[in-house]
Amino acid sequence: MSVLITNVGELVTNAAPGAGFYAVRDAALVIENGVVAWAGPAREAPAADEVVDAAGRAVLPGFVDSHAHLVFAGERGAEFAARMAGQPYRAGGIRSTVAATRAASDADLRANLARLAAEMLAQGTTTFECKSGYGLTVPDESRSLALAAEFTPEVTYLGAHVVPPEFEADPAGYVALVCGPMLAACAPSARWVDVFCERGAFDADQARAVLAAGQAAGLLPRVHANQLGPGPGVQVAVEARAASADYCTYLSDADVDALAASQTVATLLPGVEFSTRQPYPDARRLLDAGVTVAIATDCNPGSCFTSSMPFCIALAVRDMHLTTEEAVWAATAGGAAALRRSDVGHLGVGARADLIMLDAPSHAYLAYRPGVPQVRSVWTGGTRRE
Ligand SMILES: [Zn+2]
């Protein structure tokens, strides 16, 4: 069964020779066996079993959200409101979500995860990463990862999110738990290991220990780095050959140079700066230095409770000065690079047929019409989902 999507006003493929955003006008695309079988000018399109007329609309790769925390219970709307009224964001707020998550049933956690995954799909996200990090005990972290694995293959062990209250006087003991019995219970459900390397969370030596233990257990490293102030997170990520250093809000020249000389993606999370009134990272400095940049939501109940990649694209364009092309690339191919995936984030022949049709003639409308639902149809693996 093949499907021809034709009369596409703008087909974003990100699949030209050389990296970067790439789009074709008056285009068509053929899906067969769950992958892109052909893409090019509409007048040259081959026949197919089914034809979908895009009527001049834009078609893009599905968004790849490489950073999300979706296994949790409770909500922190009052904390957000207080922050908007002038209180600063502190990492310790995570602990209220930890208490609610530990108290929740598997069914409640699964239902919340399903609701957020459905929100993401409706907004065009076809691949998402999902972290643990609100359990912080062996059974609560391992069930968080098992639940996440029901929804995505991109599962990340984040036992080192924050030191839980019961280890307040013994952070070294908590790091030993994270690197030992907790890792052993969690590694079978996870692909990635992550650590929040930040003042108030884990220092450089603790972060190195967590990443090394995870790698020894077969997990691939990624790091929460330099969110709340300057620090060693980016250097730790590059040293560990992490797929991604996430946040990158406060960077030294040496941090930018290290990222530019590495395969580590800088994943920017503009929804967090929006929701915490922190300064945005200097995305232009990273791009101009040749760093690979991704955009993700960081969807979580504390610092940023949006599941919307279109919203993050609009922020990246308006407030971080990415071009519309750069922002869409960062939300698709950039996210794929941050997850070391070559099968998603583009629509070259052989790519997984994860794609979206906008109710708009070009990708630029994602930033031009912020806050307006514009994702008309979504395909994942060649199957129409929305
Ligand atoms: Zn995060």
pLDDT averaged residue by residue:
96
Q: What structural class do you assign from the helix and strand content?
A: alpha/beta
Chemical compounds bound to the protein? zinc ion
Low-confidence segments: none
Rg from alpha-carbon coordinates? 20 Å
Major sheet:
8 strands, mixed
Specify the number of helices.
14
Task: Give the beta-strand count.
Answer: 16
- From the spread of the alpha carbons, the general shape counts as globular
Which oligomeric state applies?
Answer: single chain
Q: Which range does the strand content fall in?
A: 15-25%
CA distance, first residue to last residue? 19 Å
> What portion of residues is helical?
25-40%
Topology pattern, helix = H, strand = E = EEEEEEHHHEHEHHEHEHEHEHHEHHEHEE
How are the secondary structure elements laid out?
Blueprint: E1 2-12, E2 23-32, E3 35-41, E4 50-53, E5 58-61, E6 63-65, H1 77-84, H2 94-103, H3 106-122, E7 125-131, H4 138-149, E8 154-160, H5 171-179, H6 181-186, E9 192-197, H7 204-216, E10 220-225, H8 233-239, E11 244-247, H9 253-260, E12 265-268, H10 270-276, H11 283-288, E13 293-295, H12 309-320, H13 324-338, E14 355-358, H14 365-368, E15 375-380, E16 383-384
Parallel strand pairs: 1-4, 1-5, 6-7, 7-8, 8-9, 9-10, 10-11, 11-12, 12-13
Antiparallel strand pairs: 1-2, 2-3, 5-14, 14-15, 15-16
Helix pairs in contact: 3-4, 5-7, 12-13
